[in-house]
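Hey, weird one. I pasted the LuxR family transcriptional regulator sequence into the form twice and got a warning about non-standard characters only the second time. First submission, copied straight from the form history:
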Amino acid sequence: MTTLTIQDLGSALKFLKKLHILCDEKSLPSHVISILPEVLPGEFFSYSTIDLASQEMNFLASSIPNVEEKLGIVQVANEYVRNNRSSEEHPVIHHYLKTGNGKASILSDFSSKQQVDHLEGLYQMSMRLLALEDLMMIFLPVDSTPTLASQQQNPQQKLLTVNVLRSQRNFSERDRRVFNLLRPHLFQAYQNAKAITRMQQGQAWLNQTLEQLSLIIVNFDSSVQLITRSAWTLLNQYFQMSATQHDQLPETLQQWIKYQIALFTQTDHFTVPSLPLQLETRGNRLTIRFMIDRDQGQYLLLLEEQSLPSFSIEALETLGLTRREAEVLFGVSKDKSNKEIGSMLGCSDKTVKKHLEHIYAKLGVQSRAAAVVAVLEQLGLLH
């Protein structure tokens, strides 16, 4: 296994500090593309989505603005998504749809130089026009992990890809490992951006003022500059604040903030992604996200309350299972035998067994108990 050098880890840490700034979904792609070359050299970078429901690929940002439209790359990509989706057209995307493995894949992993030259869509009508010879991609789990077997069964699948292209076939295992190291941080940045966008959309829709947002602003000297009314309500609900603490944060929240600050300021090693703080009470979950506004010299805490997910057939469908697979797994969770499940669903126990095989493949497990545990974890019902 390739070992990353101290310089590699230092570059990755600098990338992480730049990555976790205040961005919404619209600004994040350009921000990622602007800083990615500092840790992964290349001639062309792009950040795109593939929507299997609408059968379209959308380039959200690239290192050469609008080049996809000018050269017709978007049209080529959409033709792939709508029609073939075969290894002959785009081996990397095909590999992901087949395996669900979103880690860094390189075009040359699957195709020789001669084979790539014969890719009419991917190479002849796109990469060749930019004098590019190789491509490395990662996929982020925007929705559920898709497979070829579930494409038609889950119309809401949406893939998010970050791509690095070079003029030579010289991607190394070091490049692959660095990209894989950045992947969970890119996913966390995407989640943060989604949370910010949801709040921005809610503010526009309701024409809210700042006071109506669940926001806490802490200065770099640790003094509290602002606690909005809705944020105070949530703090009081989850931390049982007293009236005398209106300008102070709960001690446990202060300690968590100090830990988050330490993650962003340490320089000796690469850290794990800055995960949100989550608290639960009375069937609801409070998520507190930590962000830095370096321009203003402030730390921002975004508070968001949501109802806890329930374990139901409908909830299982959101994980990429078909309706019948969800019904089978729901029966398994109730400790029903294959025969009992088949009787309830009007099918044979052999059919139930076949559905279970498909469920195991999708969830990456090998037993009934492991399948139940896997979906409980994905639904956030098991900690």
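That's the output from the first submission. The warning seems to come from a hidden character in my clipboard, not from the data itself. The first strand starts at residue 44 and ends at 51.
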